[in-house]
Amino acid sequence: MFQPLYVAATGLDSFEQEMSSITDNLANASTVGFKASRTEYESLDYIERTFQDQLTQAMAQQEISGQNMPIQVGTGVRVIGTPKNFTQGTIEITSNPLDLAVQGEGFFRVKLPDDTTAYTRAGNFHMDNEGNIADPNGHLLAPELVIPEGATAIIIKKDGTVWVNVNNENTATEIGQITIARFTNPAGLEALGQNLFQSTAASGDAIVGNPTEEGFGAVAQYSLEASNVDVISEMMRMVIVQRVFDTVTKAVQSYEAMLTSLQNMKQS
Amino acid sequence: MKDRILRISGADLEVSDERVKALVNDMVNAKTPAYQKSEIVTRAFPIELQSAIDRQSMRSSMGAMEPKIEGTFYSHIKGSLIKTGGKLDVALGGDGYLVVEGSNSGMNNEMYTRDGRFTVDTQGNLLTVAGNYKVMGQNGPITLDLSENVTINPEGKIMVDGEEVAILRVVNIANTGALQPVTGSFYKAAPIGAEISEDANPQVIQGYIETSNVSVVDQMMDLIFLSKKYGLSTKVVQSRDVDLSAALKMGEMGQ
Predict the structure, then answer these.
(1) Distance of residue B153 Cα from the nearest chain A Cα, in angstroms
(2) Can you say whether residue A204 is alpha, beta or left, with left for phi > 0 and alpha for psi between -120 and 50 degrees?
(3) Is B230 in Cβ contact with A3 (below 8 Å)?
(4) pLDDT per residue over A126-168, tens digit each?
C-alpha cells in the first residue's frame, strides 16, 4: 500500500542530493584547484509481486495463452556517489613565484597536523615566517622545503626542482625537489574540504614521483589551475533536476487525489 | 453476492494502481542513465472477448470483461546521449548490450546493460558504477591501469597507453522481450532464454553516457489519464453502491 509514495520519496531525496552537489560546484566555480563532482544514479531493485498474486495470475494465463510473463515493479532510485571529475582545469598566469600548477596527472602533497599526508591540486602556496613553503591553511608542503634567508629569486622548474638565488648572486643553487603523487583511481579519493584529498581503499595508495617522469605531469611556476566547473552545464543540470523534481511532485499530488477519490467511494 | 459491475470496477482500480506504481518509478528514474521505462500490459480486448465466449460455453459469463494485468513490458528504445568527457564513460551507438558478471554464481550468470559508466577498484578490475558488477571483455573480466592514458575505440578495444588490453563484449539480443530486469538498467535473460549473438560492430562511443528513455511529457499525459480513469471507476462504484442500497430499501418498503 502507498508504494508509489515511497518510490516518489526516493526520487525527491536523490534530486535534492544532486541539487546540493550542483550548488557546491557553482559556489566553487572560482576556487583554485577545485574539481567538480558529478552525481551518479542507480535504479533500485525490481520486486516481483507476491506469490499469491503470481499464482492467480499464472492460473488465469494458463487458461488463455499458456504463457507466463512476470509482473515486476521498480522500487525507486538512489544516489550511489558523487565522484569528483579530475579533468584538467585551465591554467591561469599569476605574478607569485610560489603559485604552482600541475599540468597533467599528479597532486601536490601537504602534511596535515596529525602527520598524515593529504593531496591537492591547488598550488597557491606561500612562505611562512620560518621560510617553509605552505598552503593557504598553513599545511606544510611534503617533503618540507625551506627557502633560505636572503633569497632574491625562486625558480621552480618543470621537473619540480627548486632553485634560489641568494643575495642577488648570478648563480642559482638547487635547494630541493617537489614531488607529486598520482593514484590508480583518483575518483576514489576522499575530499576533506580546503581543496584537500585523502587516499582511501578505493583510490589505492599514492604513487609518488618527480614531475615529468613517466605518468606524471609537469609543474608550472607563476600559474594556478582554475576550477574545472563548467558553469553552463551546471545550470543545465539545475534546470533538468528542478523539472524532474516538479514532475514527481505532481505525481505525488495526483496519487493523493486518487487515494481521496478511493476514500470517498464509500458513501457514508 | 457477486456483483458484476463492482467486480469490473474493482479490477480496473487494481490495474490503475499497478500502472501508477510503474509510472512513478519511471518518473524518479528519469535521470538514471540507461534506465528503460516499463509499461504494465493489460490484456487486449480480442483475447478477452475470446475468453468470454469460451467461458460462456462452459460456465457462467460472470466477470468476463474485467481488465487483467498481463505482465510488464520494457521499452528498449534508446535514450539520447550526453557528453561527460569521462574516459571511463561509454555509450553504445548500436542496439547492443554490454555484458557484466552478475552477483549470483553458476550457469547463466550474465547480465546485460546499456549503462556504460565504469570505474576501477584497487585491483584494477573494471566495474560498473551502478551495482559494482565486473565488466566482461571478450576474454572474461577486464583489468587495467588507470594511471595511464586510457582510450576506448568504436570497436570496443580498450587501449592503455596505445596498447590493447581488452575488447568490450557487446551482444545483440534479438528477443528483448526475454529480458527480465534486475534493476531498471540491468537485465538478465529469462528462463525461456534470450537469443544472444555477438555484436561485430558495437559503435562504442567514449566520453558519453546514455540517458534514460523516460519521456517526462508522456509521463505527465499518462498521469492525467490515469487519475481521470481512477476517478471514473470510483464514481461507477459509488453510483452502483447507491443503486444497490436503493434496491435494498425497496425491499424494506414492501414489507
Answers:
(1) 20
(2) left
(3) no
(4) 988 888 999 999 999 988 888 888 888 889 999 999 999 888 7
